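Why do we bother with a discrete structure alphabet at all? Because it lets us treat a fold like text: something you can write down, compare, and reason about line by line. To make this less abstract, here is a complete entry for carnitine O-palmitoyltransferase. Read it the way you would read a sentence in a foreign language you are learning: slowly, and without expecting to understand everything at once.
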Amino acid sequence: MAEAHQAVAFQFTVSPEGIDLQLSHAALKEVYLSGLRSWKKKFNQFKNERNSFVTGVYPASPSSWLFMVTAILVTQYSRLDPSMGMIGKIKEHLPVSDYLSDQGLTVLSALAFSTGLWLALIVTMRSILKMLLCYHGWIFEEHGKISNTTKIWLALVKIFAGRKPMLYSYQASLPRLPVPALKDTMQRFLESVRPLKTDAEFQRMAGLARDFERTLGPRLQWYLKLKSWWASNYVSDWWEEYVYLRSRGPLMVNSNYYGMDFIYVTPTPIQAARAGNLVYAMLLYRRKLTREEIKPNITPNSFIPLCAAQWERLFNTTRLPGVGKDTIQHLRDSKHIAVYHAGRFFRVWLYHNGRLMRPRELQAQFQMILDDPTPPLPGEEKLGALTAADRDPWARARQTYFRSGVNEQSLSIVEKAAFFVTLDTSEQGLQGPNPSQALDAYSKSLLHGRCCDRWFDKSFTLIVYRNGKSGINAEHSWADAPIVAHLWEYTIATDAFMLGYDANGNCKGDMDSSIPPPQKLQWDIPPECQQVILQSLSVALALANDIDFNAFPFKEFGKGLIKKCRTSPDSFIQLCLQLAHFRDKQKFCLTYEASMTRLFREGRTETVRSCTIDLEMQLRLLRVAAEKHQNLYRHAMTGAGIDRHLFCLYVVSKYLGLDSPFLREVLSEPWRLSTSQTPIQQMELFDLQNHPDYVSFGGGFGPVDDDGYGVSYVIVGEDLINFHVSCKFSSKETVSVCQHIKEELLRSLGLILLFLLMKS
């Protein structure tokens, strides 16, 4: 997805003084610090979680401890000793007290023994569950055909997984991400680049790979294995730091992504009312998150838990700019949101008299902002452009002009808000004489807006348009798209099906008229800072104006018909994308498809290199190619991908001060086709049978490479696939713009389906 843009040709330096021995110390120190951060994170999670004790003892429960204690005490009074003398041994080591009788000491000893036994059973059950979750044979089995081994394994998982888990209940039971064997990664890498290179180019790359595998590779691999034993995840912290936080380019377009509203219906045309319901729905979700009442994510059609760590920073989170490296600020709670409208910033409180504000009250707050005639202060209207352009100028401006006075206070209000809301002055959606162009404009607006009316540093920005349409723009460093998509699904479903509107389109319910109005933020932005803002705006506008977007629904068929052809829908779409790109460019290209690694603790993503040698052998091997893609996806999910392993090897090489021509070349290759699917995760919230129009159109992101395409797609129900395609006008290779690749994609969908039907 959008992270592919950040991962290409990233570089950093480590410069400890002295000889190579000290460089090795630098690598060891970084491995040590990674583990330290990991353990510190676990401690803070336990300390800050509302239900930390309940989660900490899962799959047991506090009531099971009481049952255990009661059972042991009953056996003591029945003159039975299930402890085989251990209770007596504990009693012997207890200090004699004048306040406790012999019977009291016995009870205390039984209490200590039963508690120890209870904790031992918890550790045992967790260890067994972790060992069970290390088995991944199930994912490689043909759909609908489950082996006896997997059936037994699945039954054991259900037994040891416990009942009524909370959001973070499985975190301690998830296995660590394994480090793939160096030989396997080299082999898979060479397979992935074979269709992209001539014989001479491939022989040269194979020579570099063999040399790396024989010389430098084993040394770098040793550090990664050491880190995998010590830290929770050998990839994630380095991925966050070096791919995201050290990236100096604009977040807008390059990293941030968006999610779209319903496109065929608008629950209300009243902007303030829609904002009131959406914000209230998000606050309900935040409350469920705080209480850990969100159900843990599990893999489709099974009971295998996925890592939930990324949910922790969904709200109250901001990416803070720094010179050379950004940081992520996350607060335990925030009682306000920041709102932007017509060039002004406001603070809206979320609580009144100790309770959450109702939708009707939030609507009144937003209406006051819309009715406020106050003009923007000097420099205020375009202030958000600082978050849209390059990071270092924003970091220096923040240090120079926002360290004191009203600027510091107002910026702190924005950065410490639960999230950011833009009351957009434009109208979006399927409107006007050309609905297709209107949908493209809607996509571009969600991706970058006017470049100054979003706060791209916030974990997410809720955007509500003048005609009631909405969307969401999310920053990428703190989490991946499925987390934001989960929130967005809940938000729009709650808005449409639970909260609703009255006959006039206003939010339902009563309101307290004594609630104070929103607070307009004050700024004192000097001319020098205004000049920096205008420079950032110029950079951001140039980037935004260079983006071509094409969003469209494909209604001719969907996953229902594809599955009848005994082919994976995702593999089918990837084959279509490859064929469309080949018809457009007359060549294949390095292709990025995002896959999740959340089967492991603190897992994020891995790359599926969708273009393989099987894909090059045209349609006669279509099913072979589809199965090959499925296997690549499965390997990526189970920790046997290529690119994250190579990325971490490169990081270690930089800490060791060693240069690898192989790694340098591999990590500088451009992803000309970047693709991502974000499936609907909570189908139970929607009724596609009776209300097929009440579902999100999906989301999209900017092109990863200046000469490439970004393609996002979402499979909806049985008969609909929504696509979001982006590229750059300035590219000589994509000069045909998105409309042409759209036409080629539509042709490819039909061609490949026809071939499958003929072979079935």
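What the structure line is telling us, in plain words: The chain has a mean pLDDT of 88. DSSP finds 25 helices and 18 strands in the chain.
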